[in-house]
């Protein structure tokens, strides 16, 4: 091993390249516009000169002696016949020309001003406030110097400079306009003394302004602009090479024309052409310049266009690296696989591989896989021999590869059942967006996930796609299993409750199943228990329940009994009305509070007392049970669910009418100024508050009337809303009662014309009925203006969401990156990677929310449980080593 | 430049107003937690407890208004006792640094 020396980079300085620097870093001077000679060999002194690096394998670089791939490439240079303006620096040149005296080269500022500015720049430089510095220089130095035409140093009256896009400068001399050539501009810039450059924002040691005008053009190495050999054998050159050829050719012609003393017009024409070529070589998208094109008419890609933008080198290649052993596909649900499994299509499993080391124990098995080849499913795609050489398995060579196989080789076999993969969904906003899943290879073309894991992934099946990564080393697989596997992350670190649990019909199914009067015939009960994937223990318990029912003379099981089949045998707990004794649900209905995802009190209890594996099993079984029972019932949502008698409608209309009248009275009072004011609120605020309260009261009155008297309790809609599976009761109110006040930007709908929302209303009328109160309901239909009222906040919310997601996403990215390296240590301090303390106690109280219940710890309960555990242990082995360990944290 | 001078005059007026406000003792405000400077012994103890050097502690500027009345020297450690509605009382230490 060679010894590794480490060095610390103190800083990086960017500056403008001087002509001397360009010559110094170059290996070649380029003078010939031709690329290759008749034999096809690159011309020396041409743009493909081998001294600028090699790209074809087998060759050795003449400059550094390294083969292709190791040779980084070397610059060349073109000595320009006449100086040329660098197109990306025109604005700087323009500013300098107007800020500087053309006669003496000093800034057009008095000594006093210079002194002041200098001290300010010194301060800003010391504080490293670069953006402030650049703003300051632009605002106070250039703008002030620009205004002066007489130089305060030599009293020379500077002529007016006119700038014409893209790179022409004109000077007014004695009332005549004259073109200013780069040579002249350069000589002015050369005159600027170093002291004044400092004031102008330059650092004279590193950058001189005359370098903004090119006299020497650097030529990038061939590795930057490789030529491609087409299928037809022709060579196709890179865009940059084409452009450089143009530059060299024009440059040579210009040189000849100057030396032979051709007429001024010809020289000028060629000079302008050179300027054009050099400009479009840097940036081919300049306003006012025609785009340089290929013979085909396709515009040439300049250096700037190469780097910039989404498809540029920086964002596409450097920040957007792609990787192997990964995949992406549409997801669809599958309740029959486990929650920590993922269904992978055969097509995907045949491409993604796992490297498996050949040993004498698995050689027979791996040989079989190799013999299957890359196309037959349990096969293999690659082998790697002991020397590390990779060989693709094909249908032609699979027999020979199989016979060569011996211990020490590595076989890249297809993905198989039981392999661990990392699976997740973007945007990955929390750590539960990526889990370790075990593979199940299944027919079909989508990834299959258990619907129970939709909540942490925030996934649904309306076309969502998810991503898979296959770990390639033993270490990464071990990490994926031990750290990332799904059951390790069922509890959210946000507030310490289970994130996974029943969703949608599971909630209704279990709710209906555990009603007091649910009776299930024994054969049907057995059926749904089997369908719910019952294991030995479950079947045993089912048998017990059936025997008990038979001895009691029942030919049915109660729903509570069927539910209890999947509970642990010794589970006893009481949560609110729910009472479970020895693994049997005795009292209470299992509602959304007990089993719904992100709540799931019951599952949390099982998780805490029986461990993650058991909890996962119970969740999966109860999930299936809910679905199966729900199938027997059939829950749908239809317009028939909202049939209410005529009296009901009349009664609701009466409620609305009453509210309207009450608000009319309020309005009258408000108009007359008889309303009682409240401190700190305007009279209108009081009026709005009171009228809004009347509307809200009317809505709840209508709602409770509906619930109490009219709505049928056995409809799918009501059950869904009541059990918390989907929808809320307020949605029912909106369908049958009325919509209520539409809020827009935290107030009434104040929108449109002056004094009124729509032209159909009276001007100045300030009644809620014209300010967004919708008195119709969804089943009756909205009146035209009400539809507008309803659409306004709807559109507003839509826009708001579109803006907010991007804003909050960026905000979250910045936050997470800034706390990325912080670690909470054993002594509860939070420190960064250099050991600096950020917090003395994590979060101010040392609490880890994941280990709490909604942010609190029931200390008494924990101590009791620990003591109970201790006494149990004492009974068993007589001694107890572990003393209290949870007592330290205070609430 | 008549516009600019006008602006500056307004700013000056503002500053005068602010100056009169600065007579209020902000350390008495209910939102400003209690600041106190540790003795040499306490300082040693603290650094020993957390096994850190002075520069590894969070910093506070010597000009911070909350400690201006305490006569701080660079290198002093300030103890801040904060009340948090959720987390309760929590103690924080910051080392005084020069500007």
UniProtKB/TrEMBL annotation, chain A:
<keyword id="KW-0175">Coiled coil</keyword>
<dbReference type="InterPro" id="IPR007081">
    <property type="entry name" value="RNA_pol_Rpb1_5"/>
</dbReference>
<feature type="binding site">
    <location>
        <position position="71"/>
    </location>
    <ligand>
        <name>Zn(2+) 1</name>
    </ligand>
</feature>
<comment type="subunit">
    <text>Part of the RNA polymerase complex.</text>
</comment>
<keyword id="KW-0240">DNA-directed RNA polymerase</keyword>
<feature type="binding site">
    <location>
        <position position="154"/>
    </location>
    <ligand>
        <name>Zn(2+) 2</name>
    </ligand>
</feature>
<feature type="binding site">
    <location>
        <position position="460"/>
    </location>
    <ligand>
        <name>Mg(2+)</name>
    </ligand>
</feature>
<dbReference type="GO" id="GO:0003899">
    <property type="term" value="F:DNA-directed RNA polymerase activity"/>
</dbReference>
<keyword id="KW-0963">Cytoplasm</keyword>
<dbReference type="GO" id="GO:0000287">
    <property type="term" value="F:magnesium ion binding"/>
</dbReference>
<comment type="function">
    <text>DNA-dependent RNA polymerase (RNAP) catalyzes the transcription of DNA into RNA using the four ribonucleoside triphosphates as substrates. Forms the clamp head domain.</text>
</comment>
<feature type="binding site">
    <location>
        <position position="64"/>
    </location>
    <ligand>
        <name>Zn(2+) 1</name>
    </ligand>
</feature>
<dbReference type="GO" id="GO:0008270">
    <property type="term" value="F:zinc ion binding"/>
</dbReference>
<feature type="compositionally biased region" description="Basic and acidic residues">
    <location>
        <begin position="871"/>
        <end position="880"/>
    </location>
</feature>
<keyword id="KW-0479">Metal-binding</keyword>
<feature type="binding site">
    <location>
        <position position="462"/>
    </location>
    <ligand>
        <name>Mg(2+)</name>
    </ligand>
</feature>
<dbReference type="InterPro" id="IPR006592">
    <property type="entry name" value="RNA_pol_N"/>
</dbReference>
<feature type="binding site">
    <location>
        <position position="61"/>
    </location>
    <ligand>
        <name>Zn(2+) 1</name>
    </ligand>
</feature>
<comment type="function">
    <text>DNA-dependent RNA polymerase catalyzes the transcription of DNA into RNA using the four ribonucleoside triphosphates as substrates.</text>
</comment>
<dbReference type="GO" id="GO:0003677">
    <property type="term" value="F:DNA binding"/>
</dbReference>
<dbReference type="InterPro" id="IPR007080">
    <property type="entry name" value="RNA_pol_Rpb1_1"/>
</dbReference>
<dbReference type="Pfam" id="PF04998">
    <property type="entry name" value="RNA_pol_Rpb1_5"/>
</dbReference>
<keyword id="KW-0808">Transferase</keyword>
<feature type="binding site">
    <location>
        <position position="74"/>
    </location>
    <ligand>
        <name>Zn(2+) 1</name>
    </ligand>
</feature>
<feature type="compositionally biased region" description="Basic residues">
    <location>
        <begin position="881"/>
        <end position="891"/>
    </location>
</feature>
<feature type="binding site">
    <location>
        <position position="104"/>
    </location>
    <ligand>
        <name>Zn(2+) 2</name>
    </ligand>
</feature>
<dbReference type="Pfam" id="PF00623">
    <property type="entry name" value="RNA_pol_Rpb1_2"/>
</dbReference>
<dbReference type="Pfam" id="PF04997">
    <property type="entry name" value="RNA_pol_Rpb1_1"/>
</dbReference>
<keyword id="KW-0238">DNA-binding</keyword>
<keyword id="KW-0548">Nucleotidyltransferase</keyword>
<feature type="region of interest" description="Disordered">
    <location>
        <begin position="871"/>
        <end position="891"/>
    </location>
</feature>
<keyword id="KW-0460">Magnesium</keyword>
<dbReference type="InterPro" id="IPR045867">
    <property type="entry name" value="DNA-dir_RpoC_beta_prime"/>
</dbReference>
<feature type="binding site">
    <location>
        <position position="101"/>
    </location>
    <ligand>
        <name>Zn(2+) 2</name>
    </ligand>
</feature>
<keyword id="KW-0804">Transcription</keyword>
<feature type="domain" description="RNA polymerase N-terminal">
    <location>
        <begin position="210"/>
        <end position="514"/>
    </location>
</feature>
<feature type="binding site">
    <location>
        <position position="151"/>
    </location>
    <ligand>
        <name>Zn(2+) 2</name>
    </ligand>
</feature>
<dbReference type="Pfam" id="PF04983">
    <property type="entry name" value="RNA_pol_Rpb1_3"/>
</dbReference>
<dbReference type="InterPro" id="IPR007066">
    <property type="entry name" value="RNA_pol_Rpb1_3"/>
</dbReference>
<protein>
    <recommendedName>
        <fullName>DNA-directed RNA polymerase subunit Rpo1N</fullName>
        <ecNumber>2.7.7.6</ecNumber>
    </recommendedName>
</protein>
<feature type="binding site">
    <location>
        <position position="464"/>
    </location>
    <ligand>
        <name>Mg(2+)</name>
    </ligand>
</feature>
<comment type="similarity">
    <text>Belongs to the RNA polymerase beta' chain family.</text>
</comment>
């Amino acid at each position: 091993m060679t010894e590794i020396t480490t060095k610390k980079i103190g800083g990086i300085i960017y500056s403008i390249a001087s002509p001397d620097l360009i010559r110094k870093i170059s290996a070649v001077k380029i003078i010939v516009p031709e690329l290759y000679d008749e034999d096809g060999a690159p011309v020396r002194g041409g743009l493909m000169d081998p001294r600028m690096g090699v790209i074809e394998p087998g060759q050795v670089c003449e400059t550094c002696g390294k083969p292709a791939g190791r040779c980084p490439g070397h610059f060349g240079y073109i000595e320009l016949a006449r100086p040329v303006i660098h197109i990306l620096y025109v604005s700087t040149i323009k500013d300098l020309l107007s800020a500087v005296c053309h006669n003496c080269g000093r800034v057009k500022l008095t000594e006093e001003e210079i002194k002041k500015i200098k001290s300010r720049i010194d301060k800003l430089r010391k504080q490293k406030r670069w953006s402030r510095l650049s703003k300051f220089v632009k605002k106070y130095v250039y703008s002030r110097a620009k205004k002066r035409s007489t130089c305060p140093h030599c009293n020379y009256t500077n002529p007016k400079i006119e700038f014409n896009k893209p790179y022409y400068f004109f000077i007014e001399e004695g009332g005549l306009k004259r073109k200013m050539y780069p040579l002249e501009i350069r000589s002015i810039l050369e005159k600027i003394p170093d002291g004044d450059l400092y004031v102008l924002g330059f650092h004279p040691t590193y950058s001189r302004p005359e370098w903004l005008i090119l006299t020497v053009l650097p030529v990038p190495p061939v590795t930057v602009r490789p030529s491609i050999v087409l299928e037809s054998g022709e060579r196709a050159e890179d865009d940059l090479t084409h452009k450089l050829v143009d530059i060299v050719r024009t440059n040579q012609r210009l040189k000849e024309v100057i030396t032979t003393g051709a007429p001024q017009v010809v020289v000028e024409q060629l000079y302008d052409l050179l300027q054009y070529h050099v400009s479009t070589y840097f940036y081919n998208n300049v306003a006012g310049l025609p785009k340089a094109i290929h013979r085909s008419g396709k515009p040439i890609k300049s250096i700037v266009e190469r780097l910039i933008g989404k498809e540029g080198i920086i964002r596409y290649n450097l920040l957007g690296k792609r990787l192997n052993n990964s995949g992406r596909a549409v997801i669809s649900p599958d309740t029959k696989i486990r929650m920590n499994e993922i269904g992978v299509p055969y097509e995907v499993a045949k491409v993604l591989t796992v490297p498996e080391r050949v040993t004498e124990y698995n050689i027979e098995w791996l040989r079989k896989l190799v013999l299957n080849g890359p196309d037959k499913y349990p096969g293999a795609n690659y082998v790697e021999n002991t020397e590390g050489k990779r060989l693709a398995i094909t249908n032609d060579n699979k027999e020979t590869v199989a016979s060569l196989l011996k211990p020490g080789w590595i076989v890249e076999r297809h993905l198989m059942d039981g392999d661990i993969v990392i699976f997740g969904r973007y945007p990955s906003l929390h750590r539960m967006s990526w889990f370790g899943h075990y593979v199940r290879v299944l027919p079909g073309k989508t990834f299959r996930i258990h619907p129970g894991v939709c909540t942490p992934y925030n996934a649904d099946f309306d076309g969502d796609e998810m991503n898979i990564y296959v770990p390639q080393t033993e270490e990464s697989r071990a990490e994926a299993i031990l750290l990332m596997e799904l059951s390790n992350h069922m509890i959210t670190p946000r507030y310490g409750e289970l994130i996974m649990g029943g969703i949608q019909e599971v909630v209704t199914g279990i709710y209906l199943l555990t009603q007091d009067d649910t009776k299930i015939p024994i054969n049907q009960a057995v059926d749904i228990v089997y369908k719910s994937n019952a294991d030995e223990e479950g079947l045993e318990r089912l048998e017990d329940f059936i025997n008990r029912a038979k001895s009691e003379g029942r030919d049915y099981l109660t729903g509570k009994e069927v539910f209890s089949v999947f509970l642990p045998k010794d589970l006893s707990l009481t949560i609110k009305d729910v009472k479970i004794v020895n693994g049997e649900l005795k009292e209470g209905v299992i509602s959304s509070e007990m089993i719904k995802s992100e709540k799931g009190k019951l599952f949390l209890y099982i998780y805490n007392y029986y461990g993650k594996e058991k909890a996962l099993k119970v969740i999966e079984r109860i999930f299936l049970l809910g679905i199966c029972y729900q199938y027997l019932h059939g829950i749908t949502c239809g317009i028939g669910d909202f049939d209410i008698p005529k009296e009901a409608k009349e009664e609701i209309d009466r409620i609305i009418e009453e509210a309207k009248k009450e608000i009319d009275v309020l309005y009258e009072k408000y108009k007359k100024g008889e309303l009682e004011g409240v401190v700190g609120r305007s009279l209108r605020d009081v009026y709005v508050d009171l009228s809004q309260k009347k509307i809200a009261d009317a809505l709840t009155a209508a709602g409770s009337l509906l619930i109490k008297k009219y709505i049928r309790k056995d409809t799918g809609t009501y059950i869904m809303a009541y059990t918390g599976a989907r929808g809320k009761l307020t949605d029912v109110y909106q369908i049958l009662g009325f919509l209520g006040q539409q809020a827009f930007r935290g107030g009434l709908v104040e929108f449109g014309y002056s004094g009124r929302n729509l032209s159909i209303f009276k001007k100045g009328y300030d009644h809620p009925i014209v300010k967004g109160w919708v008195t119709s309901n969804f089943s009756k239909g909205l009146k035209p203006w009400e539809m507008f009222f309803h659409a306004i906040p709807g559109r507003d919310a839509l826009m708001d969401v579109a803006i907010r997601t991007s804003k909050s996403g960026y905000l979250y990215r910045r936050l997470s990156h800034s706390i990325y390296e912080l670690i909470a240590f054993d002594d509860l301090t939070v420190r960064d990677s250099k050991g600096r303390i950020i917090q003395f106690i994590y979060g101010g109280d040392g609490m880890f929310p994941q280990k709490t219940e909604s942010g609190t710890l029931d200390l008494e309960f924990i101590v009791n449980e620990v003591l109970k555990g201790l006494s149990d242990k004492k009974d068993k082995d007589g001694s107890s080593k572990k003393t209290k360990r949870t007592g330290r944290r205070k609430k | 430049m008549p516009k600019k001078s006008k602006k500056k005059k307004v700013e000056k007026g503002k500053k005068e107003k602010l100056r009169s406000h600065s007579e209020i003792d902000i350390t008495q405000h209910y939102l400003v937690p209690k600041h106190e400077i540790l003795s040499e012994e306490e300082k040693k103890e603290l650094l020993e407890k957390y096994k850190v050097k002075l520069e590894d502690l969070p910093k506070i500027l010597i000009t911070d208004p909350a400690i201006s009345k305490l006569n701080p020297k660079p290198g002093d450690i300030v103890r801040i006792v904060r009340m948090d509605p959720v987390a309760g009382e929590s103690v924080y230490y910051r080392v005084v640094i020069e500007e």
